[in-house]
Task: inverse folding
């Protein structure tokens, strides 16, 4: 093996191992990547958010009061999707699967009590990617960087665009 092919071989090993670490394809075996820096996608997602998510997760992604406490019937209120919640703790693909299949299916417990709908029959995959891209676009740099690490990415090498959606701009005014 000459030095160039050895280097390629090592690069391939690194790729394969980081791939295995990063690419958690979840229950459907498809790895979804959000498009939080594509403003067209983000704007389409904002429309989806207002129509399908804001009623529970709040107009400003603020969630419902006391969202960590289950109510008398055992249901959790809707959590915030802004930096005060924990949506940004989850990798892109997991967020996609929670939204598409619902929390009960993702946890693998059909009896899990939740008010979060499964959007599989209500939204197509592109709409789900768009709405989550919108949510992700609103996160501050620190949460974005943390979440990219959950995706197995190095935020420093991503050249992340920091353009914000209109909702966030309104919030910051
Ligand atoms: C009827 C109210 C309701 C609507 C509408 C709703 N959600 Fe939820 N959502 C919830 C509740 C309640 C939870 C908490 C999950 C649980 O019960 O364990 C949740 C949790 C989530 C989570 C997981 C957050 C985390 O930190 O783990 C995501 C992601 C999510 N919702 C996305 C969405 C998106 C995207 C939409 C719109 C397409 C939406 N939700 C619409 C009630 C709702």
Result:
């Amino acid at each position: 093996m000459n030095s160039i092919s050895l280097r390629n071989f090592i690069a391939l090993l690194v790729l394969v191992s980081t791939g295995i670490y990063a690419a958690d394809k979840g229950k459907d075996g498809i790895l979804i990547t959000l498009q939080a820096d594509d403003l067209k996608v983000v704007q389409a997602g904002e429309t989806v958010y207002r129509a399908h998510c804001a009623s529970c997760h709040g107009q400003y992604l603020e969630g419902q009061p006391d969202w960590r406490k289950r109510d008398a019937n055992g249901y959790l209120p809707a959590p915030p999707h802004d930096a005060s919640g924990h949506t940004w703790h989850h990798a892109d693909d997991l967020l996609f699967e929670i939204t598409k299949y619902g929390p009960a299916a993702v946890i693998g417990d059909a009896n899990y009590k939740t008010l979060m709908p499964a959007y599989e029959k209500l939204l197509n995959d592109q709409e789900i990617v768009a709405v989550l891209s919108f949510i992700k676009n609103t996160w501050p740099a620190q949460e974005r960087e943390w979440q990219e690490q959950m995706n197995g990415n190095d935020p420093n090498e991503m050249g992340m665009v920091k353009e914000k959606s209109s909702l966030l701009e309104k919030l910051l005014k």
In short: The chain is about 50% helix and 0% strand. The mean pLDDT is 87. The CA atoms of residues 36 and 136 lie 6 Å apart. The helical segments are 3-22, 39-52, 54-57, 92-101, 103-107, 125-137, 141-150, 166-172.
